[in-house]
Design brief:
4 helices; about 170 residues; alpha+beta; 4 strands; four-stranded antiparallel beta sheet; about 60% helix
């Protein structure tokens, strides 16, 4: 009975973290879509952090923007959806630490957030740009932050723990 309660709590926690990531991403994109003009630039921290609105019909940094419609559907809708489903199945069945699972939840939540945009709007709304001296980003969104944070968190855990055993 205790094992069942622990499993339920674990699954509920995973779903909650995934849902929070999707919700924050979708809420921020909705605000940007409704209140910011295309390519309008609103300084948040001088010229170093800008709020803008760009619709990305490709993938990371507009890669795939010029692909044929069938290739976009396959590579930007179907494949990522299957990957997120596979990661969810793995997450709920693998025996991994809670900290690694939290990183995986961030990756899944961010991935689903961008997939929702592609399916609902035909593009992903990006809106944050950072330029601090040598550090400059492309325009990105909170789903991208979630994915990047999750991946870096897992890598940091592996380095800190000195684990040689692969996750998969």
């Amino acid at each position: 009975m205790l094992l069942l309660k622990q499993s339920f709590f674990r699954y509920f926690l995973f779903l909650g973290i995934i849902a929070i990531n999707i919700g924050c991403d979708q809420a921020s994109k909705s605000l940007v879509r409704d209140h910011i003009g295309y390519h309008e630039q609103i300084p948040l921290a001088g010229e170093h952090v800008l709020l803008t609105k760009v619709e990305n019909t490709g993938a990371f940094l507009s890669m795939g923007d010029q692909w044929e419609p069938w290739a976009k559907t396959l590579l930007l809708h179907v494949l990522p959806s299957l990957m997120m489903l596979g990661m969810c199945i793995w997450l709920f069945n693998a025996k991994i630490s809670m900290s690694v699972a939290m990183g995986i939840c961030c990756i899944i939540g961010g991935g689903i957030g961008n997939i929702v945009d592609r399916i609902a709007y035909g593009s992903v709304t990006d809106f944050l740009y950072i330029n601090i001296g040598f550090f400059e980003t492309g325009v990105f969104n909170f789903a991208d932050v979630s994915i990047t944070f999750g991946a870096l968190f897992i890598i940091a855990l592996q380095i800190i723990r000195g684990e040689q055993k692969p996750l998969f």
